[in-house]
């Protein structure tokens, strides 16, 4: 054997204790971490198939749908986004993307890479798009697909989706949403809102690690995906090398992924078994606690955090009426060095909060209350630490005010006469 350079072998992985109160990723539920360390089974073991079927059903519940096509796309949230867009759109077809934050730009970029003709409308960061502006653009652009983010963590805004499905229906447009940041912590009704496709990730309100993208398609969207597959087969049979009229990606071909998850279990990729276990546990916890109860817990934590940061004298960014329940953006006060203060939160208290992107970088901090961390103790600990750090950098705070405001909110939001415990 050839000589290799000596290697210093690092110790086994041993992460520090952190409380992840940024815009995601957040701490996973303990039982999700346990699920990930469960024994592996083979790709076609009956247990694997059973676990996949259970996971499909659990996610139908999370999405609010009876649609058959509920699957996981292996990969982070953008794996689901790429699979949905590249499988629903043919090169040259028009895609409309209303943009109200960073992730709208991502949807537009992915649609462009899928060689769609991409049209965008934009509103300033901190606002959402009105249904009438969307309808006006739909009429003007006549897209095949409307791609719209539900919750954009870059701005914390929650785009209302409930009136958009009717608009798409009226104009024969497929309706896709990226619900990565919002699913589980804010209302989501796939069927009632007339959606054709939706994708998410685990690392926000679902309380898991990133690496699996729950994805759902309406029957209408499945028919479109299938028609793409037929075109591809036709091209292959005819030996016609015409490029461009079918899904180029193998990994993100939803037709193949549906066949893999379907009753025939046709081979595609090797299921990411530990991620399947994690995704199953995330959805199982939601079903166990109750979909509405989980959302209410996020609302409670988000409102308590909002009351707390306001009591610290911080100004909240954006249209608060349209804020997601699970994340708040606050303006960094004049004179406070944003990144140094964030580093102090991490080093002194082990608490991570986020900054933002693009026009908001260095101007706001984003504080999340998601999944496992949508809890009273996590909210109160974060506010207590923030108070100390702000005081140290000379921002005037009244000692105890934030704690009082947030704790008061929890006391006032008892549910059904019971004191809220989460
Ligand atoms: C956080 C987030 C993502 C993350 O995508 P990854 O591929 O998991 O990094 C995608 N979309 C939205 C709207 C998000 O908020």
From TrEMBL:
The keyword Heme does not apply. The keyword Transferase applies. InterPro entries: Aminotrans_V_dom, PyrdxlP-dep_Trfase, PyrdxlP-dep_Trfase_major, PyrdxlP-dep_Trfase_small, SP_NH2Trfase/AEP_transaminase. Substrate binds at residue 366. Coiled coil: none annotated. One of its GO terms (molecular function) is alanine-glyoxylate transaminase activity. Its cofactor is pyridoxal 5'-phosphate. Residues 47-353 form the Aminotransferase class V domain. Keywords: Aminotransferase, Pyridoxal phosphate, Transferase. It comes from the Bacteria. It holds the Pfam family Aminotran_5. GO terms for biological process: glycine biosynthetic process, by transamination of glyoxylate. Belongs to the class-V pyridoxal-phosphate-dependent aminotransferase family. This is Aminotransferase V. The lineage of its organism: Bacteria, Bacillati, Actinomycetota, Actinomycetes, Micrococcales.
């Amino acid at each position: 054997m050839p000589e290799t350079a000596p290697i210093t072998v690092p110790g086994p992985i041993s992460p520090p204790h952190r409380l992840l109160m940024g815009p995601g990723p957040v701490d996973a539920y303990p039982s999700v971490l346990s699920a990930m360390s469960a024994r592996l089974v083979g790709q076609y073991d009956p247990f694997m198939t059973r676990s996949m079927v259970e996971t499909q059903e659990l996610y139908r519940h999370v999405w609010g749908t009876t649609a058959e096509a509920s699957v996981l796309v292996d990969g982070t949230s953008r794996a689901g986004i790429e699979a949905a867009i590249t499988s629903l759109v043919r090169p040259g077809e028009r895609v409309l993307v209303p943009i109200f934050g960073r992730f709208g730009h991502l949807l537009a970029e992915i649609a462009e890479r899928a060689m769609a003709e991409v049209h965008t409308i934009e509103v300033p960061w901190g606002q959402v798009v009105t249904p009438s502006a969307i309808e006006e653009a739909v009429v003007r652009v006549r897209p095949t697909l409307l791609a719209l983010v539900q919750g954009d963590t870059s701005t914390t805004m929650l785009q209302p989706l409930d009136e958009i499905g009717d608009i798409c229906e009226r104009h024969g447009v497929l309706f896709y949403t990226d619900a990565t940041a919002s699913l589980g912590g804010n209302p989501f009704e796939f069927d009632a809102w007339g959606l054709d496709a939706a994708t998410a990730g685990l690392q926000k309100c679902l309380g898991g690690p990133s690496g699996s993208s729950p994805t759902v398609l309406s029957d209408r969207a499945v028919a479109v995906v299938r028609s793409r597959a037929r075109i591809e087969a036709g091209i292959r049979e005819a030996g016609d090398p015409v490029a461009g009229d079918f899904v180029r990606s193998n990994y993100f071909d939803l037709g193949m992924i549906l066949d893999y998850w379907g009753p025939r279990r046709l081979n595609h990729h090797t299921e990411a078994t530990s991620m399947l276990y994690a995704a199953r546990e995330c959805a199982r916890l939601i079903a166990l606690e109750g979909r509405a109860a989980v959302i209410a817990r996020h609302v409670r934590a988000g409102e308590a955090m909002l009351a707390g940061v306001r009591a610290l004298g911080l100004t909240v960014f954006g249209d608060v009426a349209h804020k997601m329940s699970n994340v708040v953006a606050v303006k960094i006060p004049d004179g406070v060095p944003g990144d140094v203060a964030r580093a102090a939160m991490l080093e002194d208290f082990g608490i991570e909060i986020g900054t933002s992107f693009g026009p908001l970088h260095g101007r706001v901090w984003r504080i999340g209350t998601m999944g496992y961390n949508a809890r009273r103790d996590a909210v109160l600990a974060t506010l207590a630490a923030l108070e100390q750090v702000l005081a140290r950098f000379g921002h005037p705070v009244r000692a105890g005010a934030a704690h009082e405001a947030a704790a008061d909110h929890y006391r006032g939001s008892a549910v059904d006469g019971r004191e809220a415990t989460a």
